[in-house]
UniProtKB/TrEMBL annotation, chain A:
Keyword Signal (UniProt): yes
UniProt KW keywords: Signal
Domain DUF1549, first and last residues per copy: 38-220
InterPro entries xref list: DUF1549, DUF1553
Organism annotation: Stieleria neptunia
Protein name per its UniProtKB record: DUF1553 domain-containing protein
Domain DUF1553 positions: 270-406
Signal peptide boundaries: 1-21
Keyword Mitochondrion recorded: no
Entries under Pfam families matching the protein: PSCyt2, PSD1
UniProtKB/TrEMBL annotation, chain B:
InterPro entries given in the database record: Alkaline_phosphatase_core_sf, DUF1501
Origin superkingdom: Bacteria
Organism: Stieleria neptunia
Protein name (Swiss-Prot/TrEMBL): Sulfatase
Length: 519, 437
């Protein structure tokens, strides 16, 4: 028996495109200086509440933010030092450009999308297939494949050449119901599965809509071919159908909310039929969901939040802004990198996340930056790069060991669907953070790359402390912090050698709240 | 050794004093207030889940069929309750039968280990859009004392199988179980060694050094939270403080079974399950609301072959661990506050297969409730003479979980909020009033 209670549903667009464009404005004007336009939408929303937005962030805060958001890792110490010392006026712009065009951006985007695409409870024995998906996604982001093409490729994938997306289907056992639910959540920001059990009394979508949508996935099968590399391939074969629950009624594939059947496909490839509608500029949900996701990535929460609950009971905080971003994305032919470039150039993205005059802005006002909890991979990769200096152990570990340690950390810290505005971990995870193997490698004097590197006599204690702060928190210490840490290094009553005291300081910084967030 | 609750509170105060130095005076006062609060209320309820991994045979334990060929070779014995009969391999539990309510009419629709485990632990079929939490997570959330320094839900040796069914689901990792694992096979004839991962600071960090780290960490945290008091940074701080409290409190002692005499340890049984039951007693004494102990590492109860030998061996562990736990809890006045549920993912076929085994059977099997809030000394529901079907008192997993909730004084209809703002009741079934006090 299904016991799902569904209280949310979907209503069509909240704001029409015309409402945003001002009188006499041409399309060209509308997209002439988009970053300014975004800031105008925000400042208009602050007038009513007389909100005074937070000031611009300092360079260190911004550098950490841009690296973690776009490269998925904290800035390397030497890069951060160079950035801070750079006197040029457009250095933030240059930083964003170099990050967006780096392969790290593609890798980080692939991490993020892997997490979205795999089911929360996916088992650990599918590592190989998850890696294939990651590689496939990374290639798309390296090529900057337009988002509609990316999703189209994803939704029609099968066979040997593009086995990457297969795990999306196999991890849901090729079940049309699950695939329909996941697809509508991911690419339309809509929980269509609510209509699985009953029509919604207030919305135009029906149970029939859901089951006809599911019919697009009715013909999936695992292919018999033996693939090298461990991945599985899928293909569509005519035959299987979806029937309406507790009936024999075969559901013909149909787009939700659309009465006419889809145009016939030459080979009756249903997922291709679906893609033609789903990943198109005419689908009112598609660009909005994508733009909202990018906004949530950069600002810590969506204009509609959570990002997969874009329905009438959960209106956007800034409806006109959301529509503008969706239109912009369409205008840019679904160039995601361009949307990132535009949004990271807004004043909003450059504001500090620190509280000024004791006043905390509501997180959905975007009058200050929201601090975002790091994902497990962001934390581990930053630790690995800046503190372990690329090696877990000075006595040369193999790449396989490193990968295993990373996987183990990610497994322990796994937090599917966690919002960056939550801290999703419990006591078990925190004990692992404080006393676990990664922290051991980072703080055991004999093993830690960073501590060993500071052994050289030409370093002063002040320089050592400064390096620790840059490595762990991406900023230099304040005067009082410097004083406090110097006192610890020079504490005559303690009997540890100086390396042990540096180990203490490293441990402290790595366990602070500051080290767990993107500022 | 007899420990009164008063003694425990004193221990807690001593622990609070010892970490007070590093955490500052206000924390010390807070700890003492919290301890005082516990003392005045003292109505903490506890739940013990005895999880039988693999699916235990009902016919060879609590629903004997001696008159039928399906009954097999294990004999039945009388219990302390006239008319109620158990397997001969559960003699100590038989003496405590007045505490037990046998539910003989359990039936679910899942005969697969993974899916059956999910159904029994969450009340819901696997794979729907909502990530339902394990019942242990929901109950520990309802029963927890927010001021306690102890974990709310401890699971001993959960085994590698179907870990997803232990997940806190939409409740979030804050309500995840703290897992106690077995460190290696025990040396011959020795007690099973149980441990909590990462409970000790790294070997080279002594207590003094750890405290000096915490003092500096404390000032860094305070400064950062002043400028960034967002929900995530506050939550990070809160969870860290809980973990640090646990490291510095007597919570850790609960996990140290070497503090018990060999006589007591022996009485529980030397294996993982017996030592796990002993740990459950130590955790309950210290106020932990929910403890789960698993019997049958991997799928031990999955007796497709040689059922009778395997069930005998498993029952010996079950009988010693469970009965000693009830005796010791009763001695401390804690049994009436502790509700115990014995369950696995399903039962086993009444018919005996050609390998002398029994196969998966979700259509008619038994679960047992015991202790606080439970009207013991009875069997509720019945199966047919051949054990093939439920003929009376048929219940499903939702009814079972709702009954457990009520025995614990938790309203099963109380709701938690799932993803997307949906309110979800802890359990949706009808409580079996006949087995409730």
């Amino acid at each position: 028996m299904m016991r799902i209670v569904c209280i949310l549903f979907v209503l069509p667009l909240f704001v029409s495109i015309g409402a945003v464009a001002r009188c006499g404005e041409t399309t060209g004007d509308r997209f002439a200086s988009p970053s300014d336009r975004v800031d105008q939408y925000l400042s208009a929303s602050w007038q009513e509440t007389a909100t005074r937005p937070s000031p611009r962030s300092g360079d260190a805060e911004f550098c950490r933010r841009a690296w973690l958001d776009l490269a998925g890792v904290a800035p390397p110490v030497w890069q951060l030092r160079r950035f801070l010392a750079d006197p040029s006026g457009d250095k933030r712009k240059q930083l964003i450009e170099s990050l967006l065009s780096s392969s790290r951006f593609a890798t980080h985007m692939a991490h993020r999308w892997n997490a979205f695409l795999l089911p929360a409870e996916s088992s650990d024995d599918r590592q190989g297939d998850a890696a294939a998906l990651h590689a496939w996604l990374r290639q798309q982001f390296l090529n900057n494949t337009p988002y509609d093409h990316l999703v189209g490729g994803f939704l029609t994938a099968g066979g040997k050449s593009d086995q990457g997306p297969a795990i999306f289907y196999t991890s849901r056992n090729l079940e049309p119901v699950k695939l329909a639910a996941a697809t509508s959540r991911l690419f339309m920001g809509v929980q269509l599965e609510c209509a699985q059990c009953h029509d919604h009394p207030f919305a135009s979508w029906t149970q029939d809509d859901f089951w006809s949508f599911a019919a697009f996935f009715a013909q999936l099968q695992l292919s018999d071919s033996n693939l090298r590399g461990g991945g599985q391939a899928i293909e569509d074969r005519s035959g299987a159908e979806v029937t309406f629950p507790e009936s024999e009624r075969v559901m013909a594939p149909r787009y939700p909310g659309v009465t006419s059947p889809p145009e016939a496909d030459p080979t009756d490839f249903r997922r291709r039929q679906l893609t033609i509608w789903l990943a198109s500029r005419n689908n009112p949900y598609f660009a909005r969901a994508a733009a909202n996701r990018v906004w949530a990535h950069l600002f810590g929460r969506g204009l509609v939040d959570p990002v997969d609950a874009m329905d009438s009971s959960n209106p956007p905080s800034h409806p006109e802004l959301l529509q503008y971003l969706a239109d912009y994305l369409v205008e840019q032919r679904f160039d995601l990198r361009e949307l990132y470039r535009m949004l990271t150039s807004t004043q909003a993205y450059h504001r500090t996340s620190a509280i000024v005059d004791g006043q905390r802005h509501p997180p959905d006002s975007f009058a200050a930056m929201n601090v975002k909890t790091l994902s497990a991979s962001q934390y581990f990769d930053s630790l690995h790069q800046n503190v372990l200096l690329g090696r877990l152990n000075a006595s040369a570990d193999s790449p396989q060991v490193e990968q295993a340690v990373r996987d183990e950390f990610l497994r322990r810290m796994k937090a599917p669907d966690a919002s960056p505005s939550d801290y999703p971990h419990g006591v078990v995870q925190v004990l692992g953070m404080m006393n676990g193997p990664e922290m051991l490698a980072a703080t055991a004097e004999a093993q830690s790359g960073l501590i060993a590197s500071m052994d050289a006599p030409f370093f002063s204690d002040t320089e050592r402390i400064e390096t620790l702060f840059l490595a762990c928190l991406s900023r230099p210490p304040s005067d009082s912090e410097l004083e406090m840490f110097l006192a610890h290094l020079n504490d005559a009553s303690a009997e540890q050698p100086s390396a042990a005291r540096l180990s203490d300081l490293t441990w402290i910084l790595l366990n602070t709240a500051e080290c767990f967030v993107c500022p | 050794m007899f420990q009164t609750p008063v003694f425990n509170r004193r221990q807690a105060i001593a622990a609070a004093v010892s970490i007070g130095g590093s955490l500052g005076m206000s924390d010390l006062l807070q700890s003492i207030t919290a301890v005082a609060g516990e003392a005045s209320e003292n109505d903490q309820r506890h739940c013990v889940l005895l999880w039988m991994s693999g699916g235990p045979s009902q016919i060879d334990t609590f629903d004997m069929k001696p008159a039928h060929k399906n009954g097999g070779s294990i004999k039945e014995i009388a219990t302390a309750v006239p008319g109620l009969r158990f397997s001969e391999h559960l003699p100590q539990l038989a003496r405590q039968a007045d505490q037990l309510a046998i539910l003989r009419g359990m039936a679910t629709k899942e005969g697969d280990h993974q899916r059956g485990t999910t159904v029994m632990r969450t009340g819901h079929i696997a794979g729907g859009p909502v990530r339902y939490p394990a019942i242990g997570c929901s109950l520990s959330k309802s029963l927890r004392n927010p001021d306690s320094k102890l974990p709310h839900y401890v699971t001993v040796a959960p085994g590698p199988f179907a870990r997803g069914s232990l997940s806190p689901g939409f409740l979030g990792p804050k309500f995840a179980a703290t897992s106690v694992s077995v460190s290696g096979p025990p040396a011959a004839g020795n007690f099973a060694q149980l441990r909590v991962d990462h409970l000790q600071p790294h070997g080279f960090v002594g207590p003094e050094r750890f405290e000096s780290r915490l003092a500096l960490w404390e000032s860094m945290q305070a400064a950062y939270l002043k400028t960034r008091n967002a929900p995530n940074t506050i939550a990070q701080d809160t969870v860290y403080r809980s973990a640090i409290d646990m490291l510095g409190s007597n919570a850790k002692d609960a996990f140290d079974l070497s503090a018990e005499s060999d006589t007591v340890r022996e009485a529980y049984g030397r294996g993982t399950f017996g030592q796990g039951c002993l740990m459950a007693r130590r955790l309950i004494e210290r106020g932990v609301p929910l403890v789960e102990v698993t019997l049958g590492d991997g799928l031990g109860w999955d007796t497709h072959a040689n059922n009778f030998e395997q069930v005998q061996r498993l029952c010996q562990q079950l009988d010693a661990g469970w009965s000693t736990l009830m005796t010791e809890l009763a001695d401390r006045g804690l049994l009436e506050k502790t509700t115990i549920l014995w369950a696995g993912e399903f039962g086993r076929t009444p018919a005996i297969n050609s390998n002398g085994g029994r196969d998966h059977f979700p259509q008619a099997f038994s679960c047992v409730l015991a202790g606080g809030g439970v009207a013991g000394g009875q069997a509720f529901g019945a199966t047919s003479t051949d054990g093939m079907e439920v003929v009376d008192g048929k219940i499903d997993q939702q009814d079972l979980l709702a009954t457990l909730c009520k025995a614990l004084g938790v309203d099963p209809t109380s709701e938690n909020i799932a993803e997307g703002g949906r309110p979800i009741a802890i359990a949706e079934g009808n409580p079996v009033e006949q087995v409730l006090l």
